[in-house]
Amino acid sequence: MMVPLDPMGPPVVNGGGGGAARANGSGDANASPNNYGIATISTNVSVRRRDDEYRSKIMGTTVRNYAEDDTNGEASTCGRILIFLSWVLVVLTMPFSLLVCFKVVQEYERAVIFRLGRLMQGGAKGPGIFFILPCIDAYARVDLRTRTYDVPPQEVLTKDSVTVSVDAVVYYRVSNATVSIANVENAHHSTRLLAQTTLRNTMGTRHLHEILSERMTISGSMQLSLDEATEAWGIKVERVEIKDVRLPVQLQRAMAAEAEAAREARAKVIAAEGEQKASRALREASEVIGDSPAALQLRYLQTLNTISAEKNSTIVFPLPIDILTYFMKSKEAFQANQ
């Protein structure tokens, strides 16, 4: 009796008489003969198909493993031979070989070494001196200092269908020298292209007033997005700053006219409120002057003093209104007598 394993379900039992059933203890023995025969035929077909799949998988995996083992074995053997020959060359050309074998990297640099095309264990070397074998070792210097990238102006269509030109500055550095060499062809060029794309995508989801008033928020979101995307390249984005937002000339004129009209409207409102308050003050003053006739004469004198301080050559003589009132009353009495 053969029991092949099914990764998608319980084991299938294949009997010698051609009958088959799933060993699940669900009471299949009570089924009718006809149903049992149909189930046996379909189960045999599925068992043969699974057996063929398992056989092909196992044989393919075994063949691949054998091929990989042979390739790795041959590569390791050739590698040992080449390393031995390289050491012999170093010893024979001593001490001139030391000029080629010893390298120095600065404090802000790291060296990623490849031996026979494979990345050496231990990660990047440096800072300081390190040793390489001639002819079989190759190394790449990686600068860990912060770099500045000035993103060129990008023409962006905002969410409210306004075309603006936006430029920014991105500060980034290499955080993992080994990953920046092994995982991407040119980490700096890739980061710069991604910065331009991220700037356009971020600005395209914002309204114009948000771009003009929320630069710090937009810069922070861009920094997080870039840092997350470049982490697999060994790049750390430290800061993103939006430099300038350029609007079309016609839009600038329209916005200036709108702002000017708004300022004029506010000025008119303020002037009207001032006139209203002045009229109330004049009404109160007139009531006070009406209660005291001498206050009017004092007001005349005060006005004369103000005019004389500004224009000394002008002489102003106040005429009391009471005199005019006397003449008007005399005229009315004369007309009444006639």
Note the run of SSEs as H and E: EEHHEEEEEEEHHHHEHHH
Could you estimate the helical fraction of the residues in percent? 55-70%
User: What's the rounded overall pLDDT mean?
Assistant: 76
Q: List the total number of helices.
A: 9
CA-CA gap between termini: 153 Å
Q: What is the overall silhouette? A: rod-shaped
Strand content: 15-25%
Main sheet summary? 3 strands, antiparallel
* Structural class designation: alpha+beta
- Which spans have pLDDT < 50 for at least 5 consecutive residues? 1-45, 54-71
Strands across the major sheet, in which order? 5-4-7
Strand element count: 10
- The gyration radius over C-alpha positions equals 48 Å
Offer a quick outline of the entry.
The protein is an alpha+beta fold and 338 residues long. Helix content is 56%, strand content 19%.
Question: In words, what does this structure look like?
Answer:
One of its GO terms (cellular component) is plasma membrane. Its main location: membrane. The structure is a single chain. This protein has helices spanning 33-92, 98-101, 177-182, 187-204, 208-213, 215-230, 249-291, 293-310, 321-337, and strands at residues 12-14, 20-22, 102-105, 109-115, 118-119, 128-131, 137-143, 147-157, 163-174, 235-246. The radius of gyration is 48 Å and the shape is rod-shaped. A 3-stranded antiparallel β-sheet has the order 5-4-7. A 3-stranded antiparallel β-sheet has the order 8-9-10, covered by helices on one side. The protein has a two-stranded antiparallel sheet with strand order 1-2. It is α+β, with helices and mostly antiparallel strands and 338 residues long. Helices cover 56% and strands 19% of the residues. The longest helix is centred in the first third of the chain and has 60 residues, at 33-92.
